[in-house]
Write a structure and sequence with these properties.
Oligomer: single chain
Number of domains: 1
CATH class: Alpha Beta
Order of helices and strands: EHEEEHEHHHHHE
Distance between the termini: 17 Å
Length: 196
């Protein structure tokens, strides 16, 4: 695995996950196929991909275990975040993703975690969503992209794979690296993320 500076413009951090089969494809096969489609059909340049990890469903008891991964990608020409998200949604739909329930089971989940060191839409909105109480997280959905992803620092299933592709990426609001955010999580959360 090579390490590139993910804080440079044009670099994007992605989280990938699945816990339901897509036809005859198991979740790990779906993740690999989605990476291939992103590169071949959506013109993403995949710089680095983590190992695949088995992780408990979130929230606990919400379904079968997930397969999760992270990737550092770039695109050949400047694009906006809306275009990146549209490409991710096209690939999700191709693999049967249906958005019926927040945090429900899924055949494929592609999340844009960060776009270099951009803070979107602004610092105040980013901070508000990061500080949202857990009971509100389950019911409130942003009406626009919030980057970096506001739950990034709370989730071992994101940070463990991300630490393989971008351990030195620094959150532009907190100043913490991926490695530092991961170390701040409870050991039981980190230990629940198991390599396949």
């Amino acid at each position: 695995m090579s390490y590139h500076n993910p804080n440079i413009p044009g670099s994007f951090l992605l989280a990938l996950g699945a816990n339901l089969p897509f036809g005859a494809m198991l979740p790990n096969q779906t993740l690999q196929a989605a990476l291939d489609v992103l590169e071949r059909e959506e013109a993403f340049r995949i710089k680095s991909v983590s190992r695949f990890w088995r992780t408990p469903a979130f929230p606990a008891g919400a379904g079968p275990d997930f397969v999760n991964a992270a990737a550092l990608v770039s695109v050949p020409q400047p694009v906006d975040v809306a275009s990146i998200l549209a490409a991710l949604h096209r690939v999700e739909a191709r693999f049967g993703r249906e958005r019926r329930q927040r945090w429900g089971g899924r055949t494929l989940d592609l999340d844009l975690l960060a776009a270099g060191d951009s803070v979107l839409p602004d610092s105040a909105t980013q901070d508000r969503w990061r500080a949202l109480p857990p009971d509100r997280q389950a019911v409130e959905v942003p009406d626009r992209p919030i980057l970096p992803h506001p739950r990034l620092a709370d989730r071992a299933f994101v940070l463990v794979p991300l630490a393989e592709v971008a351990p030195g990426w620094r959150h532009p609001r907190t100043g913490l690296t991926v490695h530092e955010m991961l170390e701040a999580l409870p050991a039981r959360d980190r230990d629940a993320v198991i390599p396949l």
